[in-house]
Write a structure and sequence with these properties.
By secondary structure, this protein is an all-alpha fold. It has seven helices and two strands; from the N terminus they run E-H-H-H-H-H-H-H-E.
């Protein structure tokens, strides 16, 4: 069904761990407007689309959202690996660490677990596409350009050959 390339579309290389940044970014993975919900929304809504072109487009978008999940997962992993206990204890990420250590688990920054209740699949084309547009509008609120300059994470472009980092 899909062809998978064993490399990130946009490689991620984090220069230093930052649990504060990780806690914010994890919402983009499993938060109410995150990539996991987006991929599930599109991939499930496609089945009831009466126009096969629209169904195909939803498949394409849902697949792209899966790629975004992989990138966000790599970012969270790299921001949390090799944390010292002091870094963990002094961060809002500490409660996440208790249950998941440095595993990448989809949740919102608040700690709320991902839930399929954050998206809808009604079987009604207009309702579903309207919900998709609303979700994309909400998702656009996460603009990295609005982040403070001293957010702490030194994120550089480049490919990291270490398999554990992907």
């Amino acid at each position: 069904m899909w062809t998978y390339e064993r490399r990130l579309e946009y490689p991620v290389k984090i220069c230093k761990p930052d649990p504060n940044a990780a806690q914010l970014i994890i919402s983009q993975l499993g938060g109410p407007n995150g990539e996991l919900g987006a991929s599930m929304r599109y991939l499930n809504q496609r089945y009831t689309m009466t126009d096969r072109n629209v169904a195909g487009t939803l498949t394409d978008i849902g697949t792209e959202e899966l790629a975004h999940m992989e990138i966000i997962g790599a970012i969270v992993h790299q921001l949390t690996r090799n944390l010292s206990m002091d870094q963990i204890e002094k961060s809002p990420f500490a409660s996440y660490f208790v249950d998941h250590t440095t595993g990448v688990w989809p949740s919102a920054a608040s700690g709320m677990a991902f839930s399929s209740a954050t998206f809808q699949c009604t079987g009604d084309t207009i309702a579903d596409l309207t919900e998709d547009m609303a979700a994309e509008f909400q998702e656009s609120g996460y603009d990295i350009e609005d982040a403070p300059e001293d957010a702490g994470a030194d994120i550089g472009a480049g490919f990291d050959d270490d398999e554990d980092d992907e």
